[in-house]
Write a structure and sequence with these properties.
alpha/beta, Rossmann fold, 5-stranded parallel sheet, 9 helices, globular
Length: about 200
């Protein structure tokens, strides 16, 4: 058996092991929630946001969790939620919190859950979107402008996002509608992706 045929068979096995979901990852402000909701509406499947699930489970906002229990506690909750989502049946669109792929143990869990799509957006656009956002505890830490903070944090996270992702969609200069349409097509084609589609 040729290596090429063997590789294709391995890919097929890997895809069969994945859940029937699309999982959106990326930095805060990339539009994971709004894009995910739009795609799920069109596909007529449920949308889930891991941050919302944590807020509901804990009965407090993410800011309150960070302030009273700390970031380490919050990151443990993220891992717990991803483990619980492994039991999902049927297709879903899932938006993962911006820091969720940072933990090494979370990345294989995300891949098992479904096709992991990294919505990549430039620091400049992210900084514009996050300028007046007061709900992000990570942006309250450290000195510097919003752009400097985004560049620093994104620089640390980028390799982990790439490692977690099956597919990367560049979201700069692309309309909301076109990006949502790409997510819909990926789901309908069972994880196949062509950037020209």
């Amino acid at each position: 058996m040729s290596d090429q045929v063997n590789d294709k068979m391995c890919d097929k096995v890997r895809n069969q092991e994945k859940g029937n979901n699309i999982v959106l990852i990326g930095f805060m402000g990339t539009g994971k929630t709004s894009l995910g909701k739009a795609a799920a509406r069109k596909l007529k499947i449920p949308f889930l946001d891991t941050d919302d699930l944590i807020v509901k489970k804990e009965g407090m906002t993410i800011n309150e969790i960070f302030a009273t229990k700390g970031e380490a506690y919050f990151r443990s909750l993220e891992t717990q939620i991803i483990k619980e989502l492994q039991e999902l049946e049927g297709g879903h669109v899932i938006a993962a919190g911006g820091g969720l792929p940072l933990r090494e143990e979370n990345r294989p869990l995300l891949k098992k859950l479904g096709q992991v799509i990294y919505i990549r957006t430039s620091p400049q656009i992210l900084a514009e979107r996050l300028e007046s956002d007061t709900k992000r505890p990570v942006l309250k830490q450290g000195d510097g402008t919003i752009l400097e903070k985004v560049e620093r944090i994104l620089g640390e996270r980028e390799p982990k996002y790439v490692d977690a992702a099956d597919i990367i969609i560049e979201n700069d200069g692309r309309s909301f509608f076109n990006t949502a349409k790409k997510l819909i097509n990926i789901y309908r084609k069972g994880g196949e992706y062509n950037d020209q589609s």
